[in-house]
């Protein structure tokens, strides 16, 4: 999926730079480029790090040192994941800004960009400092050490709920504009279906193993940004 995503993004960039009417890359293009560049090492860490140290295996079959290494890689992945999710949302919002001219709609989109970026920054800071000291996140599995962590499960639920809320809001904005378009009703339905594909990660996420779904979700988001 990662290679397919890279090829699709590359095809989009080549077309917009050399064959489109304006022949230039816009903000949404640069943001999706950043997400792909971060997504590549993220995928490598997932396949060579997490997989090597027990991804998909029963935790009771692993040695404490192996679990600690897995936790170290997972800690890094959390931070990268937040950046990727945030950048994909912002890329889509920047794309919407190029196709919806209405003043109120653009204001709502800019507010959503600001909120998404702010939430991403706050989530990153919380993720980095969720344990005190930081290394307690992975060292707690191999040695006795004084430290404490925030409720990681609660943080995950809050982050997921807010992220889904932003997704629904982002879908609602373009859908509210479709009825204003001077198009045949069949074309309006087609446009609505196109925007509703953004719900795919949210709707299918609970039914796919987390270790596999996490990065397929990101690749799917980057493809949607194309």
Automatic annotation (TrEMBL):
Signal peptide: none annotated. Its main location: membrane. Residues 20-201 form the Rhodopsin domain. The chain crosses the membrane at residues 79-100, 107-129. Pfam families: Fung_rhodopsin. It is a multi-pass membrane protein. Keywords: Membrane, Transmembrane, Transmembrane helix. It is found in: Membrane. GO terms for cellular component: membrane. Belongs to the SAT4 family. This is Rhodopsin domain-containing protein. It comes from Metarhizium humberi.
